[in-house]
Amino acid sequence: xxxxxxxxxxxxxxxxxxxxxxxxxxxxxxxxxxxxxxxxxxxxxxxxxxxxxxxxxxxxxxxxxxxxxxxxxxxxxxxxxxxxxxxxxxxxxxxxxxxxxxxxxxxxxxxxxxxxxxxxxxxxxxxxxxxxxxxxxxxxxxxxxxxxxxxxxxxxxxxxxxxxxxxxxxxxxxxxxxxxxxxxxxxxxxxxxxxxxxxxxxxxxxxxxxxxxxxxxxxxxxxxxxxxxxxxxxxxxxxxxxxxxxxxxxxxxxxxxxxxxxxxxxxxxxxxxxxxxxxxxxxxxxxxxxxxxxxxxxxxxxxxxxxxxxxxxxxxxxxxxxxxxxxxxxxxxxxxxxxxxxxxxxxxxxxxxxxxxxxxxxxxxxxxxxxxxxxxxxxxxxxxxxxxxxxxxxxxxxxxxxxxxxxxxxx
Amino acid sequence: xxxxxxxxxxxxxxxxxxxxxxxxxxxxxxxxxxxxxxxxxxxxxxxxxxxxxxxxxxxxxxxxxxxxxxxxxxxxxxxxxxxxxxxxxxxxxxxxxxxxxxxxxxxxxxxxxxxxxxxxxxxxxxxxxxxxxxxxxxxxxxxxxxxxxxxxxxxxxxxxxxxxxxxxxxxxxxxxxxxxxxxxxxxxxxxxxxxxxxxxxxxxxxxxxxxxxxxxxxxxxxxxxxxxxxxxxxxxxxxxxxxxxxxxxxxxxxxxxxxxxxxxxxxxxxxxxxxxxxxxxxxxxxxxxxxxxxxxxxxxxxxxxxxxxxxxxxxxxxxxxxxxxxxxxxxxxxxxxxxxxxxxxxxx
Lengths: 411, 348
Known about the structure:
The complex is a heterodimer. Chain A has helices spanning 12-15, 68-72, 81-85, 92-107, 113-141, 145-166, 186-210, 214-220, 228-234, 238-243, 250-253, 274-297, 316-321, 323-334, 375-387, 392-402, 406-410, and strands spanning 28-32, 44-50, 53-60, 341-349, 354-362, 369-373. Chain A is mostly helical. Chain A folds into two domains: 4-60, no CATH class; 68-410, Cytochrome-c3 Hydrogenase, chain B (Orthogonal Bundle), CATH 1.10.645.10. In chain A, the strands form two sheets. Chain A has a three-stranded antiparallel β-sheet with strand order 1-2-3, covered by helices on one side. In chain A, strands 4-5-6 form a three-stranded antiparallel β-sheet. In chain A, α5 (113-141) runs antiparallel to α16 and α15 (375-387) packs antiparallel against α16 (392-402). The longest helix of chain A has 29 residues, at 113-141. In chain B, β3 (189-190) and β4 (194-195) form a beta hairpin. By secondary structure, chain B is mainly α. Chain B has one domain (2-347). In chain B, strands 1-2 form a two-stranded antiparallel sheet. The termini of chain B are far apart. Helix content of chain B is 68%, strand content 4%.
């Protein structure tokens, strides 16, 4: 067998004193991924194992790199929204709306309050869906399959709400630049009311199953910890940073979409381990629920889109009967919009952390440059450090608790 | 003599068939119970209520491609599932299924072999069972399989100690290693209102034995050798077709046998309060005892499934800690207490 560890390594510095850790000084190479049931997505980790303990690890990324940033340079602004679906596909609506907010910032659009509140409802639903996936998968990776199936039916309800709001489930492509393509339907209202009424019970059931379960706590406490300093050094954001004890939340630090209208707390952890990440996400689901309730109860009257004839498609009856509207329709669909030159950065609190869009426009029909600040890409840089010296089981839990999504990692 | 021989041979065949049948339908039960716990339907298409599902699964197993990895140790690779299956089926030989029956004027015991070292026989064959897993994992020449095999062997060796120690307390009380004597020592009543089952005299020992039985059968929360989220399939990652089927079958047969052992040692086996007073005909009593025994077995099979779909699993080092630092000391204390009580009883 051709173990990498058997190849003589003359580099003294690389060897270090590590060989003392093992009896023979040799390590087994274990190829975890790219296709492995525990790597949720396509990640490759080449682990040097000392028995069950991980000595060192090397990560390979880019298995599903689709060159989104380059693609975006050839696409009109409206057509970039579907690309953002495929970043963190567990919470697509946040990506979509984040991108629309970025463009609106560039064109300095005036957005009605109702649109803001509708967006908040959709984004917080997406956050709940994202956290449901992450937390239930932590359960699955510890071997508790049943909790996963209990809580997953609520994600299904959220996907039904997406369907009502925009017609699709996973890759939502929700909303347009300037607002939504349609108002919330009556069915959406009934389903949302039912969801708000029933979901707390489901979430409580899931919490009761895992949060104080002795075996679960033994598994996740002190598993893959990261200190606040190291997390900040790497550029962590979102639940993973908050689990380490830093109260950074884009919704509060740099409010967008009228988030300052809502009253909610930022849950914090102390150790930055898997249990804290789990608990922070659990608490955030309760907070999101609170925000949705507040936004829905105070949903202002008004139009569901901004008055942006250059960017927002005119209604169909206008298009068929009115020449001006037809011209606008044609121009918008073909991407011939009047776009100001300039550069903007806008970030939203995604399901996983600060999701940023850096947009440079030269006034042409497509962006000159678009960069996505993808939190998963940043978390994955810290992964080797976090699992060094841990057991194989811990490494898998650390990965799932950071909620690294392959689509966002590789973009 | 001839009657006895024919009876024993037919008993072997019947118990073999029952073991396989229960193992097959335990997979069905597992899936149906899992579905019940998880608000799902479970298998429902093959036959009424999906009752033919195990047969369909077995048939499918035979028709699958039988793949042997090129880098594997071929002989051992084939031998491993055979060992697992063989040891699983052998264990049932010493289990007393019910009271004696009378056929053509002869009193016959419904037990394949009434060994006076019955418990040791069970422990011995369970220990050999680990060879199937170890050899299978090692000969696959796959690192995940090897890790599963290493986990399985260390886990089974550790938990056998606590299991043996908790059984020793029973042996001290009963004064016999034979399962028939242990069962028949559990008639009558205890403290006036409880059946005279060992579980009431040895509650701690029962708990220890139950935990160890879960670990010995590699069931959740001790299913580390095959935990799919870390080791893909553990020791049977490289297995396919009926060889895989043998491993899975062996696991369910082991569950069945360990349920039978728990029922025999701690729950009075085929005894049930007032059963022998209500039924006078020995053959009818045997039939009733058989039903009672299987009811107890099914309860423990259900318990196995219940636990599997409720609890998360341990980590490897936590499992070792639990085995060596908690269960074995507690088992030793239990043994000492039992011994002390037995000696004191003589003086009273």
